[in-house]
Amino acid sequence: MQTESIRSVLVVGGGTAGWLTAANLAQSFNSAAPGAISVTLIESPDIPTIGVGEGTWPTMRATLQKLGIKEEDFLRSCNATFKQGTKFVNWQHSEQPGSYHHLFTSVSDPTQFNLAPYWLQGDAGNDRPYASAVSAQGVIAELGLAPKKITNKAYEGVLNYAYHLDAGKFAELLKQHAQQKLGVKFISANVLDVTLAGDGSIAAVITDVAGTQQADFYVDCTGFQSLLLGKAMGVGFCSVADTLLADHAVTIQVPHASEDAPINACTHSTAQAAGWIWDIGLTNRRGVGYVYSSNYVSHEEAEQTLRRYIGPAADSLSARKLAMQVGYREKFWHKNCAAVGLSAAFVEPLEASAIFLIEAAANMLADQLPALKQNLPLAERKFNSSFLFRWQKTIDFIKLHYALSGRTEPFWQAARGKQLIPASLQDLLQSWQTQPVSAYDFAHVYEPFPMESYQYVLYGMGFNQQLADPQRYRQHDKAAMYFQRVQQLTSQLQQQLPPQRELLAKIYQYGFSAL
Amino acid sequence: MTNIVALDSQQHQHYKLSEDKLFSHTRTAHILPLAVTEFVAAAVSLPIVFVKDSTTGQFRACALTGLQPGQNLCWQESGWQAAYIPLAVRNYPLLALKPEAQSDDYIIAVDTGSELFNQQSGQALFAADKGTDYLQQRARSAINQAHGIGLTQQFINRLLALELLVARTLTLTPKGAEPYELTGMYGIDEQRLAQLTAEQWLSLRANNDLLAIHAVLMSMAQLPLLVARLA
Ligand SMILES: Cc1cc2nc3c(=O)[nH]c(=O)nc-3n(C[C@H](O)[C@H](O)[C@H](O)COP(=O)(O)OP(=O)(O)OC[C@H]3O[C@@H](n4cnc5c(N)ncnc54)[C@H](O)[C@@H]3O)c2cc1C
Question: What's the complex ipTM?
Answer without folding.
Answer: 0.72
